Amino acid sequence: MFTTIPYFLLGYGIPISTSLAGVGAVIGVGLAMYRSAGVNKRTVLKLFMAWIGTVTVTALASYILYTLIAPITGPILKPKV
Q1: Residue 78 within any structural domain of the chain
Q2: Distance between CA atoms of residues 61 and 57, nearest Å
Q3: Which of 7, 51, 64, 66 is the most buried (most CB within 10 A)?
Q4: Which helix (H) or strand (E) holds 24?
Q5: How many CA atoms lie within 13 A of 27 on its CB side?
Q6: Contact, 39 vs 31, CB < 8 A?
Q7: pTM (predicted TM-score)
């Protein structure tokens, strides 16, 4: 989901950890084989919130670190003049 949907919309995907992909696959198999009885809904909700939180916290931390380091090191991409 994190790699395919953004790829279709933006032309590139979002890299995610293999643990997120593995857990998503296990949930998908549980839903496919046993429908909603195959997964614990509370656990899936916690995992989903953790996925959203992981991406959000990582993006925020990257932004903060970049704004702190960029004045010292200069921008990563320099505009062509």
Answers
A1: no
A2: 6
A3: 51
A4: helix 18-34
A5: 15
A6: yes
A7: 0.59
Domain of 50, in residue numbers: 4-72
Q: What is the domain count for the chain?
A: 1
Radius of gyration of the chain (CA): 18
In a domain, 39, yes or no: yes
**CA-based end-to-end distance of the chain:** 38
Which residue, among 62, 79, 81, 70, has the nearest Cα to 15 in the 3D structure?
62
Is residue 56 in some structural domain?
yes
Q: What span, in angstroms and rounded, lies between the C-alpha atoms of 38 and 52?
A: 23
Q: Report which DSSP code applies to 1.
A: -
| 34-76 confidence digits (pLDDT tens) | 888 888 999 889 988 988 898 899 889 999 998 999 888 887 7
